[in-house]
Amino acid sequence: MSIAFFITALIVVLVPGTGVVYTLATGLSSGRRASVAAAVGCTFGIVPAILASVFGLAALFHTSAVLFQTVKFAGVAYLLYLAWQVLKEHGTLSISAEPRAKRSTLAIVRDGFLLNILNPKLSVFFLAFLPQFVDPAAGHAVFQMLMLSGIFMLMTLVVFVIYGQFAALMRDRVFSSERAMAWMRRSVAMAFAGFGLKLALSRQ
Question: Which residue spans traverse the membrane (predicted)?
Fold first, then answer.
């Protein structure tokens, strides 16, 4: 692994995206253990995109506009659904101090997984990202890409867990103020809606 790959991958992982927002929202709404489950789900949601890029399947998104648009708008609908869940007073992702039934760990992992596999831009990103760091002289290009992908996933998991733990630690401070809770709930919902709009306006 080169220093260039490590720095570039770290920047990509650190920049807040849908996975980060989902992990933060889960940490705020359900606590530390749930935030770890969210981080795991988002990390494993990268696997299909990585495999698509490694084995050239992501090229289908370039050649099939219908396939790209279908997956894209499924992702948009899911992001808007998550935004609504955050805004709802008793939604599964609602940020509230009042006790309510918690989601199962499996449901949290599932939602994080779906969040990433329903984003076709992720496959296209890896298709353009990974080959830049493959050394032709070393041979075994597929093995190199899989190794780099594994490192990227590990970095994603570690960073997302840290984000989630921080959010969980902030729960008491957020819940101590009704104004802070309202601000946080609207901010997270707007972030999901914004990502959905950005995805809807994106092109191949």
Answer: 6-25, 37-61, 67-87, 108-130, 142-163
Q: How confident is the model at residue 17 (pLDDT cuts 50, 70, 90)?
A: confident
Q: pTM for the whole thing? A: 0.72
Q: Which domain holds residue 193?
A: 18-201
Residue 13: exposure state from Cβ atoms within 10 A (0-12, 13-18, ≥19): buried
Distance between CA 154 and CA 152 in Å, rounded?
A: 5
In a domain, 194, yes or no: yes
Q: How many Å apart are CA 65 and CA 72, to the nearest integer?
A: 10
